[in-house]
Amino acid sequence: MSIYDFTVKDMQGNDVSLSQYEGKVLLIVNTATGCGFTPQYDGLQDLYEKYQDKGFEILDFPCNQFANQAPGSDEEIASFCTGRFGITFPQFSKIDVNGENEAPLYTWLKAQKGGVLGSRIKWNFTKFLVDRNGNVIERFAPTVTPEKLDGEVAKLL
After folding, report:
1. CA 25, CA 106: separation in Å to the nearest integer?
2. Is the pLDDT of residue 118 over 70?
3. Domains defined along the chain, listed by start
4. What is the pLDDT of residue 113?
5. Segment 56-90, tens digit of pLDDT
6. Within 13 A of 11's CA, how many CA atoms are on the CB side?
7. What's the gap between Cα 112 and its chain centre?
8. Among the options 8, 18, 29, 35, which is catalytic?
9. Pairing assessment for the beta strands 25-31 and 15-17 based on DSSP bridges
C-alpha cells in the first residue's frame, strides 16, 4: 500500500485519487478555522506559492476533533480560508484523524511516522512531509510553523 492508493473527498464531496499527486512533494495537514494555530494558513500559503511550480502541493484536511475548532460545513471552511487567508492549495472534505471514524489516509500516515507522542494526532496543524516517491519523510508537531519547513521542502524538491 502507498499514499497513491488512497482516495479522499474534495470539498464538493467528489472522489479524488491521491495518485494524481504522484511525483510531487506533499505536505499533508489537518487544519481548523478556530484554532490558535489557524494563522499558520498564511505561512502555508507562502510556502505553497514559493514551491508550487517546482512540484510541491499542500493537501489540507479540515478536522473538527479538537475542541470543536472546525465546526463549519466544508463550504463555510473553504470560504473562510480563501477569504481570510487567500489560500489556493487543495482543500478536502472535513475528516477525523483519530478514533473509530478516522480517515484511512491518516491511519496509514500515522503508521508511517508515529511521532514522539505515539501514533495519535495530538492537535490540528500536525504536518506530514512526503517525498516525490510517496515516502513519509517526517511528521511535524502543530507548533512547527510552515516557515520552519522551508528548508525541508526545498531539500526534497
Report:
1. 17
2. no
3. 3-156 (3.40.30.10)
4. 84
5. 999 999 999 999 999 999 999 999 999 999 999 99
6. 18
7. 15
8. 35
9. unpaired
